[in-house]
Design a protein that fits this description.
The protein is an all-alpha fold. It has twelve helices and no strands.
Length: 386
């Protein structure tokens, strides 16, 4: 008998058969119903996109359209990064985020262009005062078109609309999408009419000074709707909040456009728009703290039943705790920072589901709570695995 090495041992008996490794248990997944955009709305957006692209090509041409789109991507990227920072621990479903951007960039723009065409057909070009379109028509039509996107989210994705922060995120994404397409038109037209010099000025004003203008307008609508949802208002109350938010967005939009028509734009920008932007940022910070308070309270109830330690609740629900937890996980074998982020995200979803269940506005929230509890425990096992 030949041996593979001098130290090899000949077999004298039969060992036990090695059983197959047990299959990894599949984690439960929350149902998509109420958390995703229906396929029919995607089809509508695709059709509208084809029509919008044909229109833009007809007035700008292919090269100018591409140049305008490249420039418009720069402020869009900045806004998307800011929204990601706001939404990073409890991100909204990807399909809803894509729908929000798509609705703003496609459907809301088509609505605005359609109304422009209708006004021209009814009253003729040049029949209205020069200030009417930017100060009256545009704020009403554009904010209504963007606001319809928030109404649609309420209609088919109410279970993914938990409160004011979600409303701001959805409103900001819709506004960012609208600004992206509008910037393509502005940048492309400037390039055709005034070349690089005029395009540079337009990019400075729209891309650098005011990339968050449309974002703030529509976020105001989303905020009031989200607050109504958090309070547990019914359909009538939530619709009333949408109307109030829409009126605020229209007023802010009209003041913004009016500053370019009747006033010194840069003076009003410094005196009004900069303070509004600062208040907007401070408001988001305060809302994030309130979200952290709610998350800490909901997870604290689980801690009282032994599911988490008080230290874990601090690590899962507070900004400082999350930073420390991710940094600590990075020192574990194999760098488990990604697993820690998953643990934090699942725990945040668990807290949101419990808050929905306690509010009584979502009859499926109790089932969601059990699903996210299993997912949170599984995520913790990955972080703490030996």
């Amino acid at each position: 008998m030949s041996f593979p090495s001098p130290l090899a041992q000949p077999p004298h008996a039969h060992a036990a058969l090695i059983p197959p490794a047990p299959a990894q248990p599949r984690l439960p997944v929350p149902p998509r119903r109420g958390r995703s955009a229906p396929i029919w709305i995607v089809g509508v957006l695709v059709v509208l996109l084809v029509l919008l692209a044909a229109y833009l090509l007809s007035i700008l041409g292919r090269v100018t359209l591409i140049a305008g789109a490249v420039l418009a991507l720069i402020p869009l990227a900045g806004v998307l990064v800011a929204v990601h920072i706001i939404d990073r621990w409890e991100p909204e479903p990807l399909s809803l985020r894509l729908f929000a951007v798509g609705w703003g960039a496609i459907a809301a723009v088509v609505i605005a262009l359609g109304v422009d065409l209708l006004v021209v057909l009814l009253v003729g070009s040049g029949s209205l005062p020069q200030w009417f379109a930017p100060v009256v028509q545009a704020p009403i039509v554009e904010e209504l078109g963007k606001g319809i996107g928030i109404l649609l989210l309420l209609l088919f994705a109410r279970r993914a609309f938990d409160g004011p922060v979600d409303g701001i995120v959805y409103g900001a994404l819709i506004g960012a999408g609208f600004a992206f397409t509008e910037n393509i038109l502005y940048f492309g037209s400037s390039l055709v009419e005034g070349g690089v010099a005029q395009t540079t000025v337009t990019f400075f004003v729209r891309g650098l000074l005011s990339p968050f203008a449309h974002v703030m307008f529509t976020a105001a609508t989303g905020y009031l709707v989200g607050r109504a949802i958090r309070r547990g208002d019914g359909r009538v109350g939530t619709l009333g909040a949408w109307v109030r938010g829409l009126l605020i967005a229209i007023v802010l939009h009209a003041v913004w456009n009016g500053s370019a028509v009747w006033a010194d734009f840069f003076a009003l920008y410094l005196l009004l728009q900069v303070p509004l932007f600062i208040l907007f940022i401070l408001g988001i910070i305060l809302l994030r703290r309130e979200e952290a308070r709610v998350t800490r309270a909901m997870l604290g109830e689980y801690a009282a039943s032994g599911w988490f330690s008080p230290e874990e609740v601090f690590a899962l629900a507070t900004s400082a705790g999350r930073r420390r937890a991710v940094a600590w996980a990075r020192t574990l074998p194999g760098d488990r920072s990604a697993a820690m982020r998953t643990y934090i995200s699942e725990a945040t979803q668990l807290a949101a589901a419990r808050q929905r269940a306690l509010s009584g506005r979502d009859r499926h929230a109790v089932a969601d709570e059990q699903i996210y509890l299993q997912r949170t425990v599984a995520a913790r096992h990955v972080v703490l695995a030996p």
